[in-house]
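Quick question: what would this complex look like in 3D?
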Amino acid sequence: MKASNAFWAEQLAGQIPEGLAREIEIFETELRLRRQGKIEERVFAETRLRRGAYGQRYDSGQRHDGKKVQKLLYPSGSLTKGPNTLWDAPGMQRIKIPGGGLNARQLETLAELAEEYSDGIAHVTTRQDVQLHYVHIDDTPSLMRRLAAAEITTREACGNSVRNVTACPFAGVCQDETFDVTPYSRALSKFLLGHPDCQNFGRKFKPSFSGCSEHACGLANMHDLGLVAVERTVDGVKKRGFQMYVGGGLGTVPYQAKLFDSFVPVEELLPLAQAIARVFAQYGEKKNRNRARIKFLVNDLGIEKFRELVLEERKNLPPDPRWTEYVQTAEGFREEPLSAGGTIPAGDSEDFRQWIRTNIRPQRQEGYATVTVALPLGDITAQQLRDLADIVRKYTNETVRTAVEQNFVIRWVSCADLSEIYRDLKAAGLSTAGAGTIVDVTTCPGTDTCKLGISSSRGLAAELRKRLAEQSFNLDAAVENLHIKVSGCFNSCGQHHVADLGFYGVSRKMAGYAVPHFQVVLGGEWEHNAGSYGLPMMAIPSKNIPEVVTRLTNRYLAARKKGESFRDFIKRIGKAEVKNLLEDLTRPPAEQSDRGFFRDWNDPREYSLGDMGVGECAGEVVSSVDFGLAAAERQVFEAQLALEAGDYHRAWQMGYQSMLQAAKSLVAAELPGISDDPEQIVQEFRTRFYETQKFFDPFAGGKFAHYLFAAHRNVEAPRHPEKARFLIEEAQLFIEASHSCYYRMGTPVTV
Amino acid sequence: MDIQHVNVKLMVQNPEDADLEPLIPVFHRWIQDQECEELLLDVADYRHVPAGPGVVLIGHEANYSVDNADNRLGVRYNRKALLDGNLQDRLEQAVRAAIGACQRLEDDSTLNGSIRFNRREMEMFINDRLLAPNSNRTREALEPEIRALCQRLFGGAEYFLGHGESDPRKLFSVSISTEKAFKPNELLENLLV
């Protein structure tokens, strides 16, 4: 689309590493061939995904405009860049930022690209990447060249590959870390990028590094490969190494990573990671995407067997000099301050003092501090990126990193400069206080731009942020330190499972209308590297979620015991009490003319069409399917109560029963009078809803139906707590899928 | 120089009073009715970002927005797709599109006149750093064309051409202002002459 696209290769000749330049040339050729129909769309889709070029919402060429489904008639017509993905439809470009590390020139490059190819905004993700939205595929080679000239790659930012290697943004300056993990994250990132052993995965693979086990920054427990710095004394010599975790992951059903080894010496880091990659490529699921993450492999094999396979593979690996070379080179990494240290000023305004309290963290190097630049919803403008570049040049040796809480962290700021840097950040609109607090809501893109979004996570996050910011000066510390994370769907990109208050988008029918909802997920733990996962409680209409936050935080303040965490508080009062507290919020307003309730945040369109005609009995019409699904929800709630009570056998049984109930409700719509016989229910469900694909999610396919089939096969309920928890998560998702299926059954158009 | 991607921003009157929230349904309505020449796709809400793009109507060939970049609120047209014709044609197309959008917003009863061109100030940008870097050379090359357009746009009335920021990292831009106040329709009529 850009007039200059033809000239960037020549302009940047010699400034791009040769290998990278060649790769971009190849991609450009592939683009040309796809335009000519000489590459299959599926192959091209994986090609572009491996270069970070994603599809975006409405790229199928149709969009529901609030009144009707509009065909989007693009100039390139039916030409596609992937299955059901039109060529001209705007896409998202993900840009890998290993460990979140950036310099001023790179910030300026991102600013240029945001302005020229996107809509003027760069978005920091929950995995330290940067994303640009509304990018035309024809512009991507130029965009990639400009990044490459600034030493940034988009390679393997998406697709079935090793994704961005994340690391604690405080690594090297943190008070509590064992040692600086930065060099090792860089070495691993460089080693695995484009590695032949990482090209044949069934799904993505996400590594992460943390300098300690107490804080959240690395989130090691929710990664495919999590590495936590540890030291061990061997023969009187202190040695560096890592606790290595494998098989963690959020996604639809979250898995805690398993400890692979309590001490992997640094020289074994790369070869062991390579061996894990080989085992994943060899034994991991390939056909069924829904079971292709390494967490399923580790779970299916068991950690002992998995470890055995990896160690066997490790023994057979041909030695690679890069194992030590990359680590040794990386260990030369140093960051130095630009100016002499100082002391933190008292400050002469309440705003400044608040900012110091929430956004400043003293470094372990005396006289220096990190400054967190809190970005609303992870968004930053092109001009702010340039201002940030100026600021990191002025006060530091360009030491700035992105953080998983969708912020920037400026490192090595002399405490003597804090007043001045605050002034400069304020001028740039980057001095918002509340970093890492309840105000700093994390969110994925949701329905704004993501194809999978169900509810508007950004809209909700913006609303919560606005309301909480208004109260920020008066928030009790116990509430201020809570974390809110929002995902637009069950796929967990907003990391809702590890928040104190997590929300993920679902939909429900109410009074004959589809209404955007969020599942409330409580009891997750952000600290201890995402130490534990919350469980879904109940679905609440989107517009009532702010009230959910108010009630839960008020109740916590009023009823908590001294020093009791929110997670422990929720555990103590129990799910039944939480349900009582929120039950009335599940209902629509008495006044049906309040149309805002039936719409999503900041989106005036009717949430759905099809069956939403307002009949005279709209408020009372409740079908037998509605009743059946409500019963399934009750059962899954009882399963959660049983899990809470430690009755894992009953928890599993109730979870299974809830799926059967939901399946029966759907079947009953076609076969009234179906019996309660599980065999008949599953058989009829399979024939009528699975084989016909009526139950299929537009993106996840038949994945959720398999949860029922698997539970039905293993009807002898295990008494294992983790298995019961998985089953309940699956049951919850099966019920959500049943709601969606029921919605589609009565809706002639697909939005 | 094959200059494309012209952006035009018309400054809004009393920006401190402008509320951007009602723009969201207005832009959605524009999509429903496909009100513009471009294929209109979606609405992006960036009101939470200080001095940001505000509310953006994403189109295939161009974006429309009420944008607050540099803390200057204005109705902006951002041409993305290539255009035939010469530079004068492209400048005129972008100016027309921005004025047209402004006129529609002024006429929209749901906005109660809150988004209204201040009648005197606009900015022009070229959103392509390679072909139009923010330099004296670009200014020298473009200024005659911009002046020719302004001559017609303001019907020979006096205007002032200011050069945007000198920061070479920024987009090439010029600011255009007039003593005389012009309504959007007057400007469009002038271009017909």
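Answer marked as accepted. Chain B has a mean pLDDT of 96.
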